[in-house]
Design goal:
Number of strands: 16
Number of helices: 10
Largest sheet: 6 strands, mixed
Strand content: 25-35%
CATH superfamily of the largest domain: Zn-dependent exopeptidases
Shape: elongated
Order of helices and strands: HEEEEEEEEEEHEHEHEEHHHHEEHH
CATH topology of the largest domain: Aminopeptidase
CATH class of the largest domain: Alpha Beta
Structural class: alpha/beta
Distance between the termini: 65 Å
Radius of gyration: 23 Å
Strand order of the largest sheet: 12-11-13-16-14-15
Length: 386
Protein backbone atom coordinates (compact mmCIF):
# COMPACT_ATOMS: atom_id res chain seq x y z
CA UNK A 1 0.00 0.00 0.00
CA UNK A 2 2.88 2.39 0.75
CA UNK A 3 4.14 1.96 -2.82
CA UNK A 4 0.67 2.70 -4.16
CA UNK A 5 0.51 5.95 -2.16
CA UNK A 6 3.93 7.02 -3.47
CA UNK A 7 2.72 6.29 -7.02
CA UNK A 8 -0.44 8.34 -6.56
CA UNK A 9 1.54 11.28 -5.17
CA UNK A 10 3.84 11.04 -8.19
CA UNK A 11 0.87 11.02 -10.54
CA UNK A 12 -0.50 14.16 -8.92
CA UNK A 13 2.86 15.90 -9.02
CA UNK A 14 3.29 15.21 -12.73
CA UNK A 15 -0.23 16.31 -13.66
CA UNK A 16 -1.01 19.49 -11.76
CA UNK A 17 1.41 21.57 -13.79
CA UNK A 18 -0.23 20.76 -17.13
CA UNK A 19 -2.21 23.61 -18.71
CA UNK A 20 -5.07 21.46 -19.98
CA UNK A 21 -5.82 18.43 -17.84
CA UNK A 22 -8.60 15.87 -17.89
CA UNK A 23 -9.91 15.85 -14.34
CA UNK A 24 -10.79 12.51 -12.75
CA UNK A 25 -13.20 13.38 -9.96
CA UNK A 26 -14.21 10.08 -8.44
CA UNK A 27 -13.84 6.32 -8.74
CA UNK A 28 -16.25 3.52 -7.75
CA UNK A 29 -16.75 -0.16 -8.48
CA UNK A 30 -19.64 -2.61 -8.00
CA UNK A 31 -19.53 -6.42 -8.07
CA UNK A 32 -22.53 -8.32 -9.43
CA UNK A 33 -22.94 -12.09 -9.99
CA UNK A 34 -22.10 -11.83 -13.71
CA UNK A 35 -20.06 -8.63 -13.98
CA UNK A 36 -17.87 -6.05 -12.28
CA UNK A 37 -18.72 -2.42 -12.99
CA UNK A 38 -16.09 0.34 -12.83
CA UNK A 39 -17.31 3.96 -12.80
CA UNK A 40 -15.04 6.99 -13.19
CA UNK A 41 -16.39 10.54 -12.92
CA UNK A 42 -14.67 12.80 -15.43
CA UNK A 43 -15.24 15.62 -17.92
CA UNK A 44 -17.35 15.76 -21.06
CA UNK A 45 -14.36 16.05 -23.38
CA UNK A 46 -12.14 13.55 -21.55
CA UNK A 47 -9.71 11.72 -23.83
CA UNK A 48 -9.82 8.04 -22.84
CA UNK A 49 -9.37 4.60 -24.31
CA UNK A 50 -10.55 1.20 -23.10
CA UNK A 51 -8.76 -1.85 -24.49
CA UNK A 52 -8.98 -5.58 -23.78
CA UNK A 53 -5.95 -7.85 -23.77
CA UNK A 54 -5.73 -11.57 -23.04
CA UNK A 55 -6.16 -11.37 -19.30
CA UNK A 56 -6.39 -7.68 -18.50
CA UNK A 57 -8.21 -4.45 -19.30
CA UNK A 58 -6.53 -1.07 -19.73
CA UNK A 59 -8.38 2.20 -19.15
CA UNK A 60 -6.15 5.08 -20.20
CA UNK A 61 -6.60 8.86 -19.92
CA UNK A 62 -4.57 11.47 -21.74
CA UNK A 63 -3.39 14.56 -19.83
CA UNK A 64 -5.23 13.45 -16.72
CA UNK A 65 -5.26 15.22 -13.39
CA UNK A 66 -5.60 12.80 -10.50
CA UNK A 67 -6.89 13.66 -7.05
CA UNK A 68 -5.61 11.56 -4.15
CA UNK A 69 -9.09 10.96 -2.70
CA UNK A 70 -10.33 9.92 -6.14
CA UNK A 71 -8.31 6.73 -6.17
CA UNK A 72 -8.56 5.71 -2.53
CA UNK A 73 -10.70 2.75 -3.61
CA UNK A 74 -8.94 1.87 -6.84
CA UNK A 75 -6.88 -1.02 -5.49
CA UNK A 76 -9.58 -3.64 -5.13
CA UNK A 77 -10.09 -7.26 -6.01
CA UNK A 78 -13.17 -9.43 -6.30
CA UNK A 79 -14.14 -12.73 -7.90
CA UNK A 80 -13.26 -11.29 -11.32
CA UNK A 81 -10.52 -8.70 -10.78
CA UNK A 82 -7.42 -10.19 -9.15
CA UNK A 83 -5.11 -7.15 -9.27
CA UNK A 84 -5.09 -3.44 -10.22
CA UNK A 85 -2.09 -1.37 -11.28
CA UNK A 86 -1.58 2.30 -12.17
CA UNK A 87 1.06 3.41 -14.65
CA UNK A 88 2.02 6.75 -16.18
CA UNK A 89 3.52 6.79 -19.64
CA UNK A 90 4.46 10.36 -20.54
CA UNK A 91 1.16 12.27 -20.48
CA UNK A 92 -1.05 9.18 -20.21
CA UNK A 93 -2.34 7.53 -17.05
CA UNK A 94 -3.18 3.84 -17.38
CA UNK A 95 -5.39 1.82 -15.03
CA UNK A 96 -4.72 -1.89 -15.56
CA UNK A 97 -7.16 -4.53 -14.32
CA UNK A 98 -5.98 -8.15 -14.33
CA UNK A 99 -8.88 -10.57 -14.78
CA UNK A 100 -8.88 -14.19 -13.62
CA UNK A 101 -11.42 -15.64 -16.07
CA UNK A 102 -12.81 -15.33 -19.61
CA UNK A 103 -14.53 -11.99 -20.07
CA UNK A 104 -15.86 -9.36 -22.41
CA UNK A 105 -15.75 -5.59 -21.93
CA UNK A 106 -18.51 -3.08 -22.48
CA UNK A 107 -18.08 0.68 -22.11
CA UNK A 108 -20.28 3.75 -22.36
CA UNK A 109 -20.56 7.27 -20.98
CA UNK A 110 -23.41 8.91 -19.12
CA UNK A 111 -24.21 12.63 -18.96
CA UNK A 112 -24.66 14.52 -15.66
CA UNK A 113 -28.01 14.36 -13.88
CA UNK A 114 -29.55 15.62 -10.65
CA UNK A 115 -27.51 13.15 -8.61
CA UNK A 116 -24.19 13.03 -10.47
CA UNK A 117 -22.85 16.40 -11.59
CA UNK A 118 -20.01 15.01 -13.74
CA UNK A 119 -19.89 12.82 -16.83
CA UNK A 120 -19.41 9.14 -16.02
CA UNK A 121 -17.31 6.59 -17.85
CA UNK A 122 -18.81 3.16 -17.18
CA UNK A 123 -16.76 0.03 -17.90
CA UNK A 124 -18.40 -3.36 -17.39
CA UNK A 125 -16.21 -6.47 -17.16
CA UNK A 126 -18.69 -9.22 -17.99
CA UNK A 127 -18.39 -12.99 -17.76
CA UNK A 128 -18.05 -14.22 -21.34
CA UNK A 129 -20.43 -16.55 -23.15
CA UNK A 130 -17.65 -19.14 -23.15
CA UNK A 131 -17.52 -19.00 -19.38
CA UNK A 132 -21.30 -19.21 -19.14
CA UNK A 133 -21.29 -22.22 -21.44
CA UNK A 134 -18.74 -23.94 -19.25
CA UNK A 135 -20.97 -23.38 -16.24
CA UNK A 136 -23.94 -24.82 -18.14
CA UNK A 137 -21.84 -27.81 -19.20
CA UNK A 138 -20.86 -28.49 -15.60
CA UNK A 139 -24.51 -28.36 -14.58
CA UNK A 140 -25.44 -30.71 -17.42
CA UNK A 141 -22.67 -33.15 -16.44
CA UNK A 142 -23.88 -33.11 -12.85
CA UNK A 143 -27.40 -33.82 -14.03
CA UNK A 144 -26.21 -36.77 -16.11
CA UNK A 145 -24.50 -38.40 -13.15
CA UNK A 146 -27.72 -38.30 -11.15
CA UNK A 147 -29.96 -39.72 -13.89
CA UNK A 148 -29.59 -43.24 -12.53
CA UNK A 149 -30.93 -42.13 -9.17
CA UNK A 150 -34.54 -41.53 -8.27
CA UNK A 151 -36.08 -38.63 -10.17
CA UNK A 152 -36.44 -35.53 -8.01
CA UNK A 153 -39.78 -33.78 -8.37
CA UNK A 154 -40.10 -29.98 -8.09
CA UNK A 155 -40.12 -29.06 -4.43
CA UNK A 156 -41.70 -25.63 -4.52
CA UNK A 157 -45.23 -24.64 -5.39
CA UNK A 158 -45.04 -20.87 -5.32
CA UNK A 159 -42.09 -18.72 -6.36
CA UNK A 160 -41.90 -15.21 -4.92
CA UNK A 161 -39.56 -12.58 -6.36
CA UNK A 162 -38.25 -10.22 -3.69
CA UNK A 163 -36.85 -7.10 -5.28
CA UNK A 164 -34.49 -4.91 -3.23
CA UNK A 165 -35.00 -1.48 -4.75
CA UNK A 166 -32.09 0.61 -6.10
CA UNK A 167 -28.46 -0.60 -5.67
CA UNK A 168 -24.95 0.21 -6.86
CA UNK A 169 -24.73 3.71 -8.38
CA UNK A 170 -28.36 4.31 -7.41
CA UNK A 171 -28.39 4.80 -3.64
CA UNK A 172 -32.08 5.70 -3.51
CA UNK A 173 -33.13 8.11 -0.77
CA UNK A 174 -30.62 9.10 1.91
CA UNK A 175 -31.72 9.68 5.50
CA UNK A 176 -30.79 12.55 7.78
CA UNK A 177 -28.20 10.29 9.42
CA UNK A 178 -26.76 9.31 6.00
CA UNK A 179 -28.39 5.89 5.84
CA UNK A 180 -28.86 4.77 2.23
CA UNK A 181 -32.16 3.37 1.08
CA UNK A 182 -30.46 0.76 -1.13
CA UNK A 183 -28.79 -0.79 1.95
CA UNK A 184 -31.99 -0.80 4.00
CA UNK A 185 -33.94 -2.36 1.12
CA UNK A 186 -31.40 -5.15 0.68
CA UNK A 187 -31.21 -5.90 4.41
CA UNK A 188 -35.00 -6.27 4.70
CA UNK A 189 -35.22 -8.20 1.41
CA UNK A 190 -32.61 -10.71 2.57
CA UNK A 191 -34.44 -11.26 5.85
CA UNK A 192 -37.72 -11.68 3.99
CA UNK A 193 -36.21 -14.27 1.63
CA UNK A 194 -34.74 -16.22 4.55
CA UNK A 195 -38.10 -16.18 6.32
CA UNK A 196 -40.07 -17.24 3.24
CA UNK A 197 -37.67 -20.08 2.42
CA UNK A 198 -38.34 -21.70 5.78
CA UNK A 199 -41.74 -22.61 4.33
CA UNK A 200 -41.39 -25.71 2.16
CA UNK A 201 -44.34 -24.66 -0.02
CA UNK A 202 -42.61 -21.42 -1.04
CA UNK A 203 -39.42 -20.33 -2.70
CA UNK A 204 -38.15 -16.75 -2.58
CA UNK A 205 -35.65 -15.35 -5.08
CA UNK A 206 -33.79 -12.04 -4.78
CA UNK A 207 -33.43 -9.83 -7.85
CA UNK A 208 -30.10 -8.65 -6.44
CA UNK A 209 -28.04 -10.22 -3.66
CA UNK A 210 -25.46 -7.45 -3.28
CA UNK A 211 -24.72 -3.78 -3.84
CA UNK A 212 -25.09 -3.46 -7.62
CA UNK A 213 -27.70 -2.02 -9.94
CA UNK A 214 -30.19 -3.97 -12.04
CA UNK A 215 -32.23 -2.16 -14.73
CA UNK A 216 -35.98 -2.03 -14.09
CA UNK A 217 -36.91 -4.18 -17.07
CA UNK A 218 -34.33 -6.82 -16.11
CA UNK A 219 -36.07 -7.19 -12.74
CA UNK A 220 -39.22 -8.06 -14.66
CA UNK A 221 -37.25 -10.52 -16.82
CA UNK A 222 -35.98 -12.27 -13.68
CA UNK A 223 -39.57 -12.82 -12.57
CA UNK A 224 -40.42 -14.29 -15.98
CA UNK A 225 -37.42 -16.64 -16.02
CA UNK A 226 -38.20 -17.89 -12.52
CA UNK A 227 -41.86 -18.49 -13.42
CA UNK A 228 -42.75 -16.37 -10.42
CA UNK A 229 -46.20 -16.32 -8.88
CA UNK A 230 -45.67 -13.08 -6.95
CA UNK A 231 -43.46 -9.97 -7.14
CA UNK A 232 -42.67 -7.78 -4.11
CA UNK A 233 -40.41 -4.74 -4.39
CA UNK A 234 -38.97 -3.39 -1.14
CA UNK A 235 -38.37 0.36 -0.70
CA UNK A 236 -38.20 3.11 1.91
CA UNK A 237 -40.16 6.33 1.47
CA UNK A 238 -38.74 9.85 1.51
CA UNK A 239 -40.22 13.37 1.44
CA UNK A 240 -38.96 16.82 2.42
CA UNK A 241 -40.86 16.79 5.69
CA UNK A 242 -39.11 14.90 8.50
CA UNK A 243 -42.40 14.24 10.29
CA UNK A 244 -43.97 11.97 7.64
CA UNK A 245 -44.13 8.39 8.89
CA UNK A 246 -45.60 4.99 8.26
CA UNK A 247 -45.77 2.25 5.66
CA UNK A 248 -47.52 2.39 2.30
CA UNK A 249 -48.09 -0.17 -0.43
CA UNK A 250 -48.49 0.52 -4.13
CA UNK A 251 -49.88 -1.55 -6.95
CA UNK A 252 -49.78 -0.93 -10.67
CA UNK A 253 -52.20 1.40 -12.36
CA UNK A 254 -51.77 1.80 -16.11
CA UNK A 255 -53.54 5.16 -15.79
CA UNK A 256 -51.01 6.41 -13.28
CA UNK A 257 -51.15 7.65 -9.70
CA UNK A 258 -54.04 8.51 -7.43
CA UNK A 259 -52.27 10.98 -5.10
CA UNK A 260 -49.64 13.71 -5.10
CA UNK A 261 -47.16 11.51 -3.23
CA UNK A 262 -47.81 8.61 -5.61
CA UNK A 263 -47.06 10.89 -8.57
CA UNK A 264 -43.80 12.00 -6.94
CA UNK A 265 -42.77 8.41 -6.25
CA UNK A 266 -43.77 7.29 -9.74
CA UNK A 267 -41.51 9.89 -11.33
CA UNK A 268 -38.56 9.11 -9.07
CA UNK A 269 -38.82 5.32 -9.21
CA UNK A 270 -39.27 5.16 -12.99
CA UNK A 271 -36.20 7.33 -13.61
CA UNK A 272 -33.70 5.36 -11.50
CA UNK A 273 -32.08 3.74 -14.57
CA UNK A 274 -30.34 7.04 -15.32
CA UNK A 275 -28.79 6.98 -11.83
CA UNK A 276 -28.01 3.25 -11.73
CA UNK A 277 -26.15 3.44 -15.03
CA UNK A 278 -27.98 2.08 -18.06
CA UNK A 279 -26.42 2.85 -21.43
CA UNK A 280 -29.74 3.54 -23.14
CA UNK A 281 -32.93 4.02 -21.15
CA UNK A 282 -35.32 2.07 -23.33
CA UNK A 283 -38.97 2.79 -23.98
CA UNK A 284 -40.43 0.80 -21.09
CA UNK A 285 -43.95 0.84 -22.53
CA UNK A 286 -42.67 -0.61 -25.82
CA UNK A 287 -40.71 -3.29 -23.95
CA UNK A 288 -43.77 -4.28 -21.95
CA UNK A 289 -46.32 -4.12 -24.76
CA UNK A 290 -46.15 -7.80 -25.69
CA UNK A 291 -46.06 -9.30 -22.21
CA UNK A 292 -48.88 -7.05 -21.02
CA UNK A 293 -51.19 -8.19 -23.82
CA UNK A 294 -51.17 -11.81 -22.62
CA UNK A 295 -53.13 -11.47 -19.40
CA UNK A 296 -56.10 -9.78 -17.84
CA UNK A 297 -54.98 -6.51 -16.27
CA UNK A 298 -58.12 -6.47 -14.17
CA UNK A 299 -57.51 -9.86 -12.59
CA UNK A 300 -53.95 -8.95 -11.73
CA UNK A 301 -55.03 -5.64 -10.23
CA UNK A 302 -57.56 -7.39 -8.00
CA UNK A 303 -54.96 -9.94 -6.85
CA UNK A 304 -52.37 -7.24 -6.20
CA UNK A 305 -54.89 -5.19 -4.23
CA UNK A 306 -55.79 -8.16 -2.02
CA UNK A 307 -52.12 -8.99 -1.42
CA UNK A 308 -51.38 -5.35 -0.56
CA UNK A 309 -54.28 -5.25 1.92
CA UNK A 310 -53.08 -8.38 3.71
CA UNK A 311 -49.51 -7.10 4.04
CA UNK A 312 -50.58 -3.59 5.01
CA UNK A 313 -52.74 -5.06 7.76
CA UNK A 314 -49.72 -6.86 9.23
CA UNK A 315 -47.41 -3.83 8.90
CA UNK A 316 -50.00 -1.83 10.83
CA UNK A 317 -49.54 -4.19 13.78
CA UNK A 318 -45.84 -3.36 14.18
CA UNK A 319 -45.81 0.35 13.36
CA UNK A 320 -47.67 3.30 11.87
CA UNK A 321 -49.29 3.17 8.44
CA UNK A 322 -49.04 6.22 6.19
CA UNK A 323 -51.84 5.22 3.82
CA UNK A 324 -54.48 2.85 5.20
CA UNK A 325 -55.48 1.53 1.80
CA UNK A 326 -53.18 0.41 -1.06
CA UNK A 327 -52.21 3.19 -3.45
CA UNK A 328 -51.88 3.09 -7.23
CA UNK A 329 -49.05 4.28 -9.47
CA UNK A 330 -47.61 3.41 -12.87
CA UNK A 331 -44.36 1.85 -11.60
CA UNK A 332 -42.38 0.12 -14.35
CA UNK A 333 -40.99 -2.48 -11.95
CA UNK A 334 -44.52 -3.70 -11.12
CA UNK A 335 -45.32 -4.67 -14.69
CA UNK A 336 -44.54 -8.36 -14.22
CA UNK A 337 -47.11 -10.19 -16.35
CA UNK A 338 -50.01 -12.16 -14.92
CA UNK A 339 -48.90 -12.15 -11.28
CA UNK A 340 -49.77 -10.00 -8.25
CA UNK A 341 -47.08 -7.32 -7.96
CA UNK A 342 -46.69 -4.69 -5.25
CA UNK A 343 -44.17 -2.11 -4.08
CA UNK A 344 -43.80 -1.86 -0.29
CA UNK A 345 -42.65 1.45 1.18
CA UNK A 346 -41.66 0.09 4.59
CA UNK A 347 -41.31 3.47 6.36
CA UNK A 348 -39.94 6.98 5.82
CA UNK A 349 -36.16 7.06 5.79
CA UNK A 350 -36.46 10.87 5.71
CA UNK A 351 -37.88 10.70 9.25
CA UNK A 352 -34.90 10.38 11.68
CA UNK A 353 -36.91 8.21 14.09
CA UNK A 354 -38.05 5.87 11.35
CA UNK A 355 -34.58 5.90 9.79
CA UNK A 356 -33.24 4.53 13.07
CA UNK A 357 -35.89 1.82 12.96
CA UNK A 358 -35.12 0.92 9.36
CA UNK A 359 -31.43 0.40 10.13
CA UNK A 360 -32.07 -1.74 13.22
CA UNK A 361 -31.71 -5.46 12.48
CA UNK A 362 -34.44 -6.44 14.95
CA UNK A 363 -36.89 -3.98 13.40
CA UNK A 364 -35.90 -5.12 9.91
CA UNK A 365 -36.82 -8.68 10.88
CA UNK A 366 -40.16 -7.49 12.27
CA UNK A 367 -40.90 -5.82 8.93
CA UNK A 368 -39.90 -9.00 7.07
CA UNK A 369 -42.10 -11.11 9.36
CA UNK A 370 -45.07 -8.79 8.80
CA UNK A 371 -44.71 -9.00 5.02
CA UNK A 372 -44.39 -12.79 5.24
CA UNK A 373 -47.54 -13.10 7.37
CA UNK A 374 -49.39 -10.97 4.84
CA UNK A 375 -48.24 -13.28 2.03
CA UNK A 376 -49.42 -16.36 3.93
CA UNK A 377 -52.79 -14.75 4.70
CA UNK A 378 -53.19 -13.85 1.03
CA UNK A 379 -52.49 -17.38 -0.17
CA UNK A 380 -54.79 -18.82 2.52
CA UNK A 381 -57.59 -16.54 1.36
CA UNK A 382 -57.35 -17.34 -2.33
CA UNK A 383 -57.01 -21.08 -1.66
CA UNK A 384 -60.40 -21.00 0.07
CA UNK A 385 -61.97 -20.07 -3.25
CA UNK A 386 -60.32 -22.91 -5.20
Amino acid sequence: MRNYLILIIALIATSVFSDENTSLYDFRYWTAPDNTRIVIDTEEDALFNVSKQNDYVIISFDDAEVFSETFSNIFFNDERVKKVEIKREKETIKLIYYINQDFIVKQFTLPPNTKYKHYRLVVDIIDSDVNSSLKKTKIAETTKTTKTTKKVLPKYKKIIIVDAGHGGEDSGAIGKNKSKEKDVNLAIARKLVTTINKNSDLKAVLTRSGDYYIPLTKRITIAQKENATMFISIHADSVESTSAKGASIYLLSEKGNNSKLAKQLEQSQNSVDQFGGVETVIDNDKFLKNILSDFSRKDREIQSFELAKKILEQLGKIGPVHKKIPQKANFVVLKSPAIPSILVETAFISNPTQEKRLTNTIQQQKIANAIYKGIINYYSEIEKDL
